[in-house]
Amino acid sequence: MTPTITAFAQSPDRGRGLARDMRVRWALEEVGQVYEVRLVSFDEMKRPAHLALHPFGQIPTYEEGDLALFESGAIVLHIAQTHAGLLPEGANARARTMTWMFAALNTIEPPIVEWEQARYLEHDKPWYEARLPLLGKRIRGRLEQLSNRLGDADWLDGAFSAGDLLMVTVLRRLEGSGMVDAFSNLSAYVARGKARPAYQRAFDAQLAVFTASNG
Ligand code: GTB
């Protein structure tokens, strides 16, 4: 059965592939699963039909027969568990991959989101100038730890996995900030992820949405 995912009809990232449908598209491309995309506007996301799929009125969602999922991490895990290619063989290796998936979403992504939100939503607040460097420092601390663990390996734990897929999409949120570039192994790691043909197909597909609606 062909799954359907949702994505922004008008992504605020203007085709940079930073919204979270990108990680789902990439996972589907990695495993060779054809998929359909339903584009939703901000208004539609808050209406009952979409809220029935996603209680928080967001993208991405994933529908496959009578299964409906939300949360990009859960969707990527489902894709990885139901197809070959994103989880290693062996219970321990799989558990370690899932650990990296959680690390990407629970340890690395939260300070990045907090920093982004401060930049977009708090720049006119009296605490902004003092708070932003603190948030940046928190991110750099995590990047340093991640960089130390990655060392000169290509991927976080053996072969490329769903853990790397999520980690690369999370680190990409810092593009343009210089924070990842300060760690040469991390910037090479992100570049390796972006060089994968499946990543490029996913990126092109989301970019085509932006190009179609912006000429
Ligand atoms: N925890 C959820 C998940 O992982 O799926 C979070 C989902 C989420 O934040 N969705 C966002 C959304 O639907 C889009 S990805 N927002 C609309 C709303 O909440 O009303 C977040 C995002 C948005 C824009 C950019 N950007 O412009 O660069 C990057 C990331």
Q: How would you portray this structure in words?
A:
It contains 9 helices and 4 strands. The mean pLDDT is 97. The protein has 215 residues and is of the alpha+beta class. The chain has helices spanning 21-31, 42-45, 48-51, 72-82, 91-121, 128-150, 162-172, 184-194, 197-214, and strands spanning 4-8, 36-40, 61-64, 67-70. The chain has a 4-stranded mixed β-sheet. It is globular and about 45 Å long. The longest helix is centred in the middle third of the chain and has 31 residues, at 91-121. The protein folds into 2 domains: 4-85 and 198-208, Glutaredoxin, CATH 3.40.30.10; 91-196, Glutathione S-transferase Yfyf (Class Pi), Chain A, domain 2, CATH 1.20.1050. The chain binds S-(P-nitrobenzyl)glutathione (GTB). Residues 12-13, 18-20, 45, 57-60, 71-73 line the site of S-(P-nitrobenzyl)glutathione (GTB). S-(P-nitrobenzyl)glutathione is lined by residues 12-13, 18-20, 45, 57-60, 71-73.
Features of this protein?
about 220 residues; alpha+beta; Glutaredoxin; Glutathione S-transferase Yfyf (Class Pi), Chain A, domain 2; 4-stranded mixed beta sheet; 4 strands; about 60% helix; globular; binds S-(P-nitrobenzyl)glutathione
